[in-house]
Amino acid sequence: MKRTKQFPRLISFTAGILLLTAACSRPPAPIHEPTRRTVETSGGQTLTGRVVRVADGDTITVLDSSNTQHRIRLEGIDAPESHQAFGTQSKKNLSDMVFDKDVTVIYQKTDQYGRLVGKLVLDGKDINLEQVKTGMAWHYKDYEREQAVADRELYARAEDEARAARRGLWQDADLVEPSSFRKEEKRERQDAR
């Protein structure tokens, strides 16, 4: 009688061992390899995610599906620095368009600060170009050779139109391009030492 009571326990124990052995012999679960989702597209790669920060009129942070943050420098434009005339307006304009929205970034390079440099696209619209059209950024001619020819022409024309219409920063008679503003600030810091 004692053996009969132990038999169901033995079967349960054996079944448990078999299940454990089967579970241990499975291949490991796949590891999430890329921290950014990238796909080759016409010479560039794409990253999709939600805009979680707007630093200024040409720099944002995107959070991808694996919860990795990517700093993005908008290609082909140069927006006023935060403490420069129209810096606050430029940042607000960009923020109103993209903050807390899902975007696609088409990029080809990383800059000296580790930021991806690319075109920001929202619902099929080139946001970099929109910053220029609204007069909230310059077409960054120092780096125009890195742009596709079609984009280079669009951005240059958009800047000309914004300037002629005196939109945004083009209302200011004493404009200083951000690149010149940065150089002057650097020179002043060095002189102060």
Task: Provide a descriptive summary of the structure in words.
This protein is α+β, with helices and mostly antiparallel strands. Helix content is 38%, strand content 25%. The protein contains 5 helices and 9 strands; from the N terminus they run αβββββαβββαβαα. The strands form 2 sheets. The protein has a 5-stranded mixed beta barrel. A hairpin with a 2-residue loop joins strand 1 and strand 2 (44-56). The protein is elongated and about 95 Å long. The chain starts with a helix and ends with a helix.
Radius of gyration: 27 Å
Look at the helices and sheets and give the structural class.
alpha+beta
- Based on DSSP secondary structure assignment, what is the total number of beta strands? 9
How confident overall, as mean pLDDT?
85
Cα separation of the termini:
96 Å
